[in-house]
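User: I'm curious whether this sequence folds into something compact or stays loose and floppy. Could you predict its structure so I can see for myself?
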Amino acid sequence: MKKATGLDRATTRNWRPATQAVRGGTWRSEHGETSEALFLTSGYTYDDAESVAARFAGDQDGMTYSRLQNPTTQMLEERIALMEGAEACRTQATGMAAMTTALLCQLSAGDHIVAGRAAFGSCRWIIDNVLTRFGIENTIVDARDNDAWEKAIRPNTKVFFFETPANPTMDIVDMAHVCGIARGNGITTVVDNAFATPVLQRCLDFGADVVAYSATKLMDGQGRVLAGAVCGTEQWINDVLLPFQRNTGPNIAPFNAWIVLKGLETLELRAMKQSENALALARFMESRVPRLLYPGLPSHPQHNLAMAQMRAAGPIFSFFLEDRAQAMAMLNALELADISNNIGDSRTLLCHPASTTHNNMGEEGRALAGIEEGMIRINVGLEDPQDIIDDIDRALSKVGL
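Assistant: Here's the prediction. I'll summarize afterward.
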């Protein structure tokens, strides 16, 4: 196979983001296909025994096994790296595989990690339960508090880990400040950027070392496959992450990689339109519900910071009703939007985090993370925004709001 453009990597890096999303990383076989080819194979054959020996020794380029290389997967990795502005990327089977790999590949017994309090429930579970089993200590901080990060540093601190915007509290982290503290202390910063993607926010531009994704979300964007990705420098990806990944095997399937490749072609269009729809809905709802958190609104306490870091505020926000009973009654009153725990989908989806995505944290853990019983998280889709507004309006009216 050869590069579809015939251009070197330095040239493709100069393309603008919309062009990279469509053409970045594309290879073509001798058939000259326009759409990326799907290689459903676990292994490869070789012309002779010397060739396979040279490939395994790293002396010859080429495929050896799809846990290590696959043409479809590598096209996706090149494209995500280009869009992220990263030197390299490795994809994983799921978003949680990406988060787990990004942390475990660089932490050992006796190390210490500082993590933001507000995070996806499974990410907090990894911090609180998995890492501790292997003797890795943690300190949980309010990621919005710049001073808290520096105060939490110990001599054995190796990683800062946070989401921005955070799931589902919509906390915003001052990336330039926090990443600057980390760099000054020899600490690696890992940022979960699933809520924004590189279309809305490029974390490396603010000093992050590693960016991790659930590509299941906006990158696919249509609720079809599970996928994850981790981006960083070529040295970090190849020397730190890859040895862990190649031997533990959290790899993405080529079919899933191909689906995400197709999703990236429309990512900018979807992310911007869904952000626009979310802003319209948030403006409508702001006066109807007791409290609403959307970084795109001036009422969000970190609105200015969010807009300094993000191109648009994304499709996701949270709002608060009186209690769990009212929240569930509101969800049950929906006619158009779906009750679902996914995000980034082209459909409008709502869920009750306390009983779904953050249920495994327990009541005390949820309270510390800011997950209230009356909280509802919404992913605003690509439907006509007025239809979404009408549906939410009906549901709120039915619960007395």
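Summary: The domain at 268-398 is CATH 3.90.1150.10 (Aspartate Aminotransferase, domain 1). The first strand starts at residue 2 and ends at 3.
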